[in-house]
């Protein structure tokens, strides 16, 4: 019976680990900007970037 | 006291018709709120705002040992109209307290005013400083009774740089089921809860005389950690009912973990509109160890008008009682509105209603309707009353500790302060375990 095994070279493994590491960093720092983008897109008034970012109530 | 984001999450649950009391995780919610409440540690300031109806932001600064902060953003696909700021918020909505259980009630019949939008999604991100650790949450309502919930933490300083947990939750008036997977030790879990009791909210034959609106919920959870091959199991039973003569609700729970040999019994009763008492007894049959805990919650009535004075409609805003409450009788509400706040408006209408049950002869159906009115009147009074502050206290005999928490208002801020005292078992000298003040502003 044939067995299927995924064989990767050390170089490929290293590259894959690096890609995963980068994507994790991207998700980490990109998550909150993504939330801000969704909030901006959903709103019909399209508030300014300062209003979006500021957690303080605008006067 | 709930953080602003927790409050908005509850508003989202309400506006999408998601009953959290039906989830196994919340089966002990009342006793947890009265006994295991968190006392602030150090100084804390939270300021939050809603830039648009779809986006809320919050900043928190804490100074315990060092100054730390967090920045949180929340996106909702459905506009939150029932969220109100800390100036007008009801205290019973701002803190976790007694929960009136109505899991069987369908959202259509329960919510009298707000239109429920059964689909929607929520995204929430919180970044801590210093260290820039990220906490993220994503909720997707697939259908009115089915939702996907993903939570994750990404932090370079914890094991494997973080963890992720995925829940698939099915929540119907009769039962709820949850399938859970966590990347931490490849943990697989299953939770379920089943409700016995009337389906429609109409009065049924009471199990115990003088008590009505009874709901019995039975639930269990099963866990299996695939990496360490360790299982977990616990079961719980909740009995929730209301007195037909006074309308006061009470909840009893029995939870058991046969693997750890732990059994826990709680008895929670709302003794009046402004007070709740809770007791809990824990016993471990492997260790022959026991513990008795007691907790109390006392609300202080506001000197201002007892009912909403501004343009907001409270029936739209209450997150605890509105979705769960049966349709209110306008006459009862009108009667209670006319009463004076300072002389505890609730008693007159409740007593009048309870007297009418005994004085008015008639069929059992009429007495059923009357008892339902009494129950509704009490619930509405709890929902509509305006409180200025709340005092919570809990003690545990075996742990030798006392916790006191006060939540009130200062101008437009919600203030929370408390202390946790621990007594040394040998010398009985009290030691301050936690002490702090928390200020919150939201609009």
Automatic annotation (TrEMBL), chain A:
Gene Ontology, cellular component aspect: mitochondrial outer membrane translocase complex
UniProt entry tagged with the keyword Membrane: yes
Subcellular location: Mitochondrion outer membrane
This protein's UniProt keywords: Membrane, Mitochondrion, Mitochondrion outer membrane, Protein transport, Transmembrane, Transmembrane helix, Transport
Main location (coarse class): mitochondrion
GO annotation (BP), single: protein insertion into mitochondrial outer membrane
UniProt topology in membrane: Single-pass membrane protein
Alphabetized Pfam families for the sequence: Tom7
Sequence similarity: Belongs to the Tom7 family.
Protein name as catalogued: Tom7-domain-containing protein
Native source species: Australozyma saopauloensis
UniProtKB/TrEMBL annotation, chain B:
Known partners and oligomeric status: Component of the ER-mitochondria encounter structure (ERMES) or MDM complex, composed of MMM1, MDM10, MDM12 and MDM34. Associates with the mitochondrial outer membrane sorting assembly machinery SAM(core) complex.
Keywords linked to the UniProt accession: Membrane, Mitochondrion, Mitochondrion outer membrane, Transmembrane, Transmembrane beta strand
UniProt comment concerning the protein's domains: Lacks alpha-helical transmembrane segments, suggesting that it resides in the membrane via beta-sheet conformations similar to those predicted for other outer membrane proteins and porin.
Membrane disposition: Multi-pass membrane protein
PANTHER family noted in UniProt: MITOCHONDRIAL DISTRIBUTION AND MORPHOLOGY PROTEIN 10
GO biological process, alphabetically ordered: establishment of mitochondrion localization; mitochondrial outer membrane translocase complex assembly; mitochondrion-endoplasmic reticulum membrane tethering; phospholipid transport; protein insertion into mitochondrial outer membrane
Compartments it resides in: Mitochondrion outer membrane
Family per similarity comment: Belongs to the MDM10 family.
Protein purpose: Component of the ERMES/MDM complex, which serves as a molecular tether to connect the endoplasmic reticulum and mitochondria. Components of this complex are involved in the control of mitochondrial shape and protein biogenesis and may function in phospholipid exchange. MDM10 is involved in the late assembly steps of the general translocase of the mitochondrial outer membrane (TOM complex). Functions in the TOM40-specific route of the assembly of outer membrane beta-barrel proteins, including the association of TOM40 with the receptor TOM22 and small TOM proteins.
Record's GO cellular component terms: ERMES complex; SAM complex
Gene name tied to this protein: MDM10
Protein name, UniProt field: Mitochondrial distribution and morphology protein 10
